[in-house]
UniProtKB/TrEMBL annotation:
The gene is mpl. This is UDP-N-acetylmuramate--L-alanyl-gamma-D-glutamyl-meso-2,6-diaminoheptandioate ligase. Its EC number is 6.3.2.45. Keywords: ATP-binding, Cell cycle, Cell division, Cell shape, Cell wall biogenesis/degradation, Ligase, Magnesium, Nucleotide-binding, Peptidoglycan synthesis. The lineage of its organism: Bacteria, Pseudomonadati, Pseudomonadota, Gammaproteobacteria, Pseudomonadales. It catalyses: UDP-N-acetyl-alpha-D-muramate + L-alanyl-gamma-D-glutamyl-meso-2,6-diaminopimelate + ATP = UDP-N-acetyl-alpha-D-muramoyl-L-alanyl-gamma-D-glutamyl-meso-2,6-diaminopimelate + ADP + phosphate + H(+). Residues 108-291 form the Mur ligase central domain. Belongs to the MurCDEF family. Mpl subfamily. ATP binds at residues 110-116. Its cofactor is Mg(2+). GO terms for molecular function: ATP binding; UDP-N-acetylmuramate-L-alanyl-gamma-D-glutamyl-meso-2,6-diaminoheptanedioate ligase activity.
């Protein structure tokens, strides 16, 4: 069968393309913005990519079109599909029907940490010899690919609360029907489709309703929004993590790189790994709990943490040269920015930390998180905020309220020149964006090599 995917370079749709190809389908796809790491991964897997949304891409007509949630009525390709009567489906529905049916689904939901926790959970199962399938909204470095079918009933899926398609406004995760569900955290996000936090909580409760009584729900004890979701009605056993929870961690290193793991008051072992930050430790606890539900002992899981490599674009080290390190991070929410910078600060002490941030997500563009942004960068030494074209509000107020030196810039080359000039041995540079950011990552890397190599 020939499947054509509209919006194929999105992290979810690109992963879907790999699964469809592995099922034996001919797969092609279109997207308006083709950039790494997804474009590189797809091309390496021999999947045909087409730039833009021309109706010609659908001639001759494929057997089925999978339509991404970024596309809406008025898009030329969407209009062509409707006019010609070509069969179409949303990505989550196709995944549920053709991949997840009859699998033991382990779903990772939450505002933050989904990609890292999904990657970590897949790795814990892989290390235990369980060869899971997975679909992750990023490229986990332990696997080098964002999705695979796997050789056993177990399937790990990053479970997003964003809507499924222009014709299906349910959250993606409602389609997945997990047996093991991780709810990492819950804050207001996606202001373009949700009016308030209560609306997101309602979608999370729809997910809760799909988990069987023989399953397991894992969530942090100290998370009021998730507790409200559970209190709406829960028919599934739960385990909690964090302070006061069933699973707890006791830090042996301030940066979170070494910690004890406790389950119901009993010490399970000591974890040592390359990740840092309280958020990383929280991710580890939920992944260990989920892995135990499918037969991985806590001791096995704790040992496996040492071999975990974070996904691409999650504090991914791009270059280390003359004791200057450049990181790429996907953070696009004030809480994610704050926890990422705090984790790095705990690791590096008083060393210089320069953050370059593009407020690119739909919620950021609407200004919904504007008030929380100044405090989010407290862990940095200095911050450069990039004001992209189309941002509906000015970053000037964020700079004025910043607890650390900050500025607004509109020229990427000027940002690179400034950062490279100011960098010295010991400097750590973090670029934060959930998009391509005008190619700044590779440009900055080359500039550092030229000046400091």
């Amino acid at each position: 069968m020939h499947l054509h995917i509209l919006g194929i370079c999105g992290t979810f749709m690109g992963s879907l393309a790999l699964l469809a190809r592995d099922l034996g389908h001919q797969v092609s796809g279109s997207d308006a913005n083709v950039y790494p790491p997804m474009s590189t991964q797809l091309e390496a897997q021999g999947i045909q990519l087409m730039e833009g949304y021309s109706p010609e891409h659908l001639d001759p007509a494929p057997d089925l079109v999978i339509i991404g949630n970024a596309l809406s009525r008025g898009n030329p390709a969407v209009e062509h599909v409707l006019d010609k009567g070509i069969p179409y489906v949303s990505g989550p529905e196709w995944l549920a029907r053709h991949v997840l049916q009859d699998r033991w689904v382990l779903a990772v939901a939450g505002t933050h940490g989904k990609t890292t926790t999904s990657s970590l959970l897949a790795w814990l199962l892989e290390d235990a010899g369980m060869a899971p399938g997975f679909l992750i909204g990023g490229v986990p470095q332990n696997f080098g690919i964002s999705a695979r079918l796997g050789d056993t009933p177990f399937f790990v899926v990053e479970a997003d609360e964003y809507d499924s398609a222009f014709f299906d406004k349910r959250s993606k995760f409602v389609h997945y029907r997990p047996r093991t569900a991780i709810l990492n955290n819950l804050e207001f996000d996606h202001a373009d489709i949700f009016p308030d936090l209560a609306a997101i909580e309602r979608q999370f409760h729809h997910l809760i309703r799909t988990v069987p009584a023989s399953g397991l729900i894992i969530y942090p004890q100290q998370e009021p929004a998730l507790q409200r979701v559970i209190d709406m009605g829960c028919w599934t056993p739960c385990q909690t993590t964090g302070e006061g929870g069933n699973w707890q961690a006791r830090l042996l290193a301030e940066d979170g790189s070494r910690f004890e793991v406790w389950l119901d008051g009993e010490l399970q072992g000591v974890a040592e790994w390359s990740q840092t930050g309280a958020h990383s430790v929280a991710n580890a606890l939920t992944a260990l709990a989920a892995a135990r539900h499918v037969g991985v002992t806590p001791q096995q899981g704790i040992a496996a943490l040492a071999g975990f490599a974070s996904p691409k674009r999650r504090m991914e080290k791009l270059i280390e040269i003359n004791d200057i390190i450049l990181y790429d991070d996907f953070a696009h929410h004030p809480t994610a920015i704050a926890t990422t910078l705090a984790g790095l600060r705990a690791q590096i002490g008083e060393q210089q930390l320069i953050a370059v941030i593009e407020p690119r997500s739909n919620t950021m563009r609407l200004g919904s998180h504007m008030a929380a942004l100044p405090a989010s960068v407290r862990g940095a030494s200095e911050v450069i905020w990039y004001q992209p074209a189309g941002l509906d509000w000015s970053l000037d107020s964020v700079v004025e309220q910043s607890p650390v030196p900050a500025q607004v810039a509109t020229d990427i080359d000027a940002i690179i020149d400034q950062v490279v000039t100011r960098a010295a041995p010991g400097t750590r540079i973090v670029i934060m964006s959930n998009g391509g950011f005008g190619g700044i990552h590779q440009k900055m890397k080359r500039a550092l090599e030229i000046r400091h190599g």
